[in-house]
Amino acid sequence: xxxxxxxxxxxxxxxxxxxxxxxxxxxxxxxxxxxxxxxxxxxxxxxxxxxxxxxxxxxxxxxxxxxxxxxxxxxxxxxxxxxxxxxxxxxxxxxxxxxxxxxxxxxxxxxxxxxxxxxxxxxxxxxxxxxxxxxxxxxxxxxxxxxxxxxxxxxxxxxxxxxxxxxxxxxxxxxxxxxxxxxxxxxxxxxxxxxxxxxxxxxxxxxxxxxxxxxxxxxxxxxxxxxxxxxxxxxxxxxxxxxxxxxxxxxxxxxxxxxxxxxxxxxxxxxxxxxxxxxxxxxxxxxxxxxxxxxxxxxxxxxxxxxxxxxxxxxxxxxxx
Length: 321
Hints:
Layout: H1 2-12, H2 16-27, H3 30-38, H4 42-50, H5 52-69, H6 76-91, H7 102-110, H8 114-142, H9 148-168, H10 171-185, H11 191-199, H12 212-235, H13 242-255, H14 267-280, H15 284-318
Helix pairs in contact: 3-15, 4-12, 5-6, 5-8, 5-12, 6-7, 6-15, 7-8, 8-9, 8-12, 8-13, 10-11, 12-13, 12-15, 13-14, 14-15
């Protein structure tokens, strides 16, 4: 009974965010949302779109540093293509989990074992997320008097992630736990494949000091992304200081990683409305437009390019040699 309920819940859970988005739109004044969209100054939008180029190049370069440390031979533009395609799959999946599509694409290009490639993608994702959480902690400090539970939850969540990573840094300890999980969780017919998968996890595992620069670059990338979104603040003529926005919007952005919605839709908008309408008295309709338009510029446009690349790649494979 519980297993059946869980399977049904997994199927419908990602749509919760869509329902939240619909609820947010329904609870707001649609005419004011339309008015806010029409009031956006286009020159700021164009500038925000242009910032996508350095964001993608820096994002890819940070990932390439980890690849080189693990002796994964993938050219800059091949890596960039896979990154763009992963944006598309992340958009259509809950919690951006579709970005794991990098692994099979990298396997096809490099022939490296799946376990090693999975760890590469995991490390890249963790460093990017951790740099976001650092900014999120600073933002939570700013609003600790209004939302004390947010600060404690953030500290707990980041601390938990750090402990998990520290545990798996030691190969013997990590492999032992992973093998234990495979033996108890994985069905018998798949155990051998999963054991082989685990055996390659620590192949060419990167040095900790080699991950410092990718982590720093991750912070720079997030600052650029939130600067893109702040240009929408200026386009809407909202009275939100840049530094406050830079530290508070990561909180709304992090809500999008909850696996209850596709690409964070709904959860991000609702969190942004609560934060900026409460702290700065900004009209809820304008916060909604800010969050949605910012997401379109920083993610949807890039995802569309990834979609076109994935189509071209699939078509190329269909053509016989």
